[in-house]
Amino acid sequence: MKVLLLSINYWPEVTGIGAFTTYRAEYLASAGHDVEVCTSFPYYPEWRIPKEYAGKFALTEERNGVRIVRSYLYVPNPVTSLKRILHEASFVLSSAVRVFTRRRPDVLLVVSPPLGMAVTAILLNRLRNIPFVFDVEDLQPDSAADLSMLPGWIIKILYKLEKAAYHHAQLVTTLTPAMRKKIVEKGIAEAKVELLEPRMDESLRGLLPAEGAEFRDRYNLGERFLVTHSGNMGVKQGLDVVLDAAALSKDDESLCFLFVGDGADCERIRRRASGLNLRNVRFLPLLSEPEFRGLLEASDVCLVSQQKAVSEIAFPSKIVTYFAAGRPIIATVNLDSEVARVTQASGAGMVVEPENPEALLAAILELRKQDRRTYSENARKYASERWSSIRVLGNLEQSLTAVAGSATSSMMKEGVRP
């Protein structure tokens, strides 16, 4: 089976959609399929293109059996709503040129956001009879509406485009049961919407105490109780609550709040921490894989933070990573959110209301007093049962094969040559 993936994010990005698309593509290639990825140049979460890719408009490379076809992308820094629209539009246009010159695949897997890539998918479907699976990582119109990020008329256009994407796709996939329910409620047949959940990194189950000890030594953390937020630092994360909790406990030298990663809101968070003179707050950039393993092993508690306005269906990928590593979780999120539901159902940690630093600090101090081994065991067990690679990636392959096979059979009946 020849598979073409269309995604704005891919390796060497290690967080979010880039990580998802990479392990999916490489799994399919390892299973013997012909896999090609049309993507941009790496930029996330730093919102900067690395030197080795800077100044290029197109590039083709190969990694782990996957052909990677890159096209131009405008990367704003700082990021605003208008600049983000231009950012996404630049890739939609440049990638469309690249996609239409590729050899016809048996199936197209389109990763959204950006939602605008639905236009490319629909055109390929109509003009070249290419069946496509529309993979929804974020309900972009709902998120934009919840956060009041865009004018109403633009949001209306996004909803119309979303509806067209669902209508023309042979299959719609998404991350969580809550997201699937939301899509079905938009009028899409239940049989057309499947779960394509994130997969856990099984290697994180084998973290060693020595890795955590080495990390603590390298960054002079000693025996401090380490509260970690890793990954994207954007507006949606609402990280001010973490700084406020740190400010409430700034006289407790045994606590350390560690921010690891980058993002559109990172510099502002850094400046605010400096202005508050928070000596119990540390910042680190994105880490190499060995260092990231050490970070996870060293962390006593890992944080998942979201603004109140963030949709209840949002589900950041870091949760799967934290669970696989057996880290106790504190989720400062809407209490009816998917994040809260999973945290409570798994027994992997505690949930507190968002934007409440007193509640967050109280939960941190409570977990500090407890034996956290039960939380760790619960997290690993839940991850193994729900997000194992064999289960998740096997389902992906099966779904793509079914779509490709169904489309081929239909075309043969109609006398159309694939």
Task: Describe it.
This protein is α/β, with parallel strands linked by helices. The protein has two domains: 2-199 and 388-413, Rossmann fold; 202-385, Rossmann fold (3-Layer(aba) Sandwich). The chain is built from 15 helices and 14 strands. It has helices at 16-30, 81-99, 117-128, 140-146, 152-168, 177-185, 209-218, 240-248, 266-275, 289-298, 318-324, 338-346, 357-369, 373-386, 389-413; strands at residues 2-6, 34-40, 58-63, 66-71, 107-112, 132-136, 171-174, 193-195, 225-232, 255-262, 281-284, 301-305, 329-332, 349-352. An eight-stranded mixed β-sheet has the order 3-4-2-1-5-6-7-8, with helices on both faces. A hairpin with a 2-residue loop joins strand 3 (58-63) and strand 4. Helix 4 (140-146) runs antiparallel to helix 5, helix 7 packs across helix 10 and helix 8 packs across helix 13 (357-369). The longest helix has 25 residues, at 389-413. The protein is globular, with a radius of gyration of 22 Å. The relative contact order is 0.11. The model has no long low-confidence stretch (mean pLDDT 91).
